[in-house]
Amino acid sequence: MIACLRLFTALCLAALLAACASSPSSSLGELPRTPDASIEQLLEQATKSKDPEKAALLRLSAADLAYRQGNAGQSAQILQQVPVEQLKPGQQVFASTLAAELAMVRNQPKAALTALSHPSLQRLGELPAEQQVRTATVHARALEADGQTLAAARERIFIAPMLEGEAASKNHEAIWNLIASLPTDQLQPITDDDFGGWIRLALVVKTAGTLEQQQAAIDTWREQNPKHPAAIQLPLPLTKLKELASQPLSKIALLLPQDGPLGSVGKALREGFMAAHYQAQQAGQKPPAIEFYDSSRLTSLDEFYRKAQADGVQLVVGPLEKPLVKQLSARPQLPITTLALNYSEGEQGPAQLFQFGLAAEDEAREVSRRARADGLHRAAIMVPKGEWGDRVLRAFSQDWQANGGSIVATERVDQPVQLAQQIADMFQLRQSEGRAKSLQSTVGSQVAAQPSRRQDIEFIFLAATPQQAQQIKPTLNFQYAGDVPVYATSHVFSASGDQNQYNDMNGIRFCETPWLLDANDPLRKQVTAQWPQAGGSLGRLYAMGVDAYRLAPRLGQLKALPDSRIQGQSGSLGMTQSQRVERQLPWAEFINGQVQRLPDTSR
After folding, report:
1. Nearest to 198 by CA among 165, 214, 174
2. Which of 237, 310, 398, 482 has the fewest beta carbons closer than 10 A?
C-alpha cells in the first residue's frame, strides 16, 4: 500500500514538474520588475554576474529604469548591450517595447514599428495585462504618428478592457479622436464588435446635417448599441454637441458693408447668404431670423454689440473689413459669438471669435497637398511681386517643405516683357546656350545644338491672374518647358467661358470652388438665374455667403469635432485650433479650351 502511495506521489510530482516546465511563465521568461537598486548598481551586478541570462535581465532593468527617469539617451546605450536574441520571448517583447518607446522619443514612428515587428510579439497575449497595455499603447502611438489611424484605434480598443480610472478615460477619448479624424470614405463598418460600433458612431455623426439631426442620430445609435463603451460613456466632444443641440440658434446679425469700396463684395456675400436661408425655408427647416446691419456706417463696435444684444442676436456674421476684424481679434472677449468674414494677422483671437474667408494661403497649401498626392517632390515657384505674392509664397513654402518637399527655383513675376528672361533663368537655358557656343568655338565649326533645360524641376507652383497665366504657359512651351506640370491657385480662372483664353492655358491644373466647377448644382442654378454675375468670378463671393450661412449654426460642432468637415460651396470646410475656417478645394484642368474636373485624391 505504501509503495503504491509512493508511486502515486512520484507520478504527481513528475506531472507537476512537467506542467511547470511547459507553463507560459517559464517558457516566456521572467520580466524585469521595478528595482530597488539604482541604474549604476544594476549595471554593476550585471557585470559581476556569471549567469548570462541574469546579466541580460539586469541590464534590461537598468535600461527601463533610465527610460522611466527620462534619460532616453542612457537607456538606449544600455539597451544596445542587451543580447535581445538570446532572451526568452517575454523578455524580447519587453526589450522590443522599450526600443519602440525610445524611437518615439526621437519622433521615429517607423523605427518604433520595426521594433514591434519582432516575432516574439506574437506571444504578447500570454504576458501580464500590464505588459500588454504598455506594448499596445506605444504601438498605437507609433501607428498614429505613421498615419495608420484605423490600426492605431484598433490597438487602443484592444487594451480598453484592461484599463481603469483616468487611464481608461484618456484611452476612451483617444479612440474617438482617432476614429473621428477619418474621412467618411474610410469608415467601413465591416464588423459587429466594439471596433465596428465606433466606426458606425463616427459615420452617423459625420453624415448627419444639422445639430438636431446629429443628436437624433447619436441617440438612435446608443439605443441600438446599449452595451458599447461609447454608449455607456459618450466621448466628451459628443457630450458638448448635446449641449449645443439644446441651445438652438434663433437670431443672426448679418454685419456687412452696403456702401463704399467693399459695397459690391458685401452685396454678393449678402445675396449668397440669403439664398441659403431661403433654400432652408423651402426645405421645411425653421431657420433663424436675420437682422441686417451696415458695417460701412459703423462708428463703434461696442455700440453695435450693445444694439445687437438688445435686438436678441445670438450670433454675428461679419464684419468683412480687415481693420474691424483686427480690432475684434485684439479683444480679450466678445459679448456675442462672431463669425468674421475675413482674417486678422494674429493667430489666436478671443474664444468667441471665428474667422472665415477666401484666403489665398489656403489655396497655396492646397497646391502643396495636391502635388504631394500626385507624387511630386521638387517645385519651382512663380508668384507676383508684392505683399500678396509674398504671403502666398510663404504659405506654400512652409507647407511644402514641412512635408518633405524641396524648392529649387523661385521667380517673382512683374513686367510681361521680363517673362521670357525669367523663365529662361529658372530653367537655366542660357547656361545651355553658353555651353553650345563654347563647344562651337572649340571645334571651330557650327554645332547643331538645341538648348536643354534643367531636369530637376518636377512642377511649377503658379499664383497669377488669367492674363499673366496666358503669357506664362505659351512662354514655357517656347522655352522647352511645356512638359513641366503647372499647378495653380484659382486666380488663373476667370470663369468667363473665353475659349481662346482657356486655350492659352492648356495643361494648367488649378484648384477652384465647387460653386464654379459644378454648374448643375441646384442652388447655383437658382442664384445665377436671378443674379447672372454669380456664374462668373464673383461666384466665389456668393459661394462664401452660402457657406457663411451654413457654418453659422455649426461653429460649435466644428470646434467640438476638430477633424470633421462641412462640404461647402467654397470648398471642404474644417476648423483650425485657432478657430479659423480652412478650405480644401477640388481640382480642374484646362484641356483643349475647356475646363475639365479632375478626380479627387485622398486627403
Report:
1. 174
2. 310
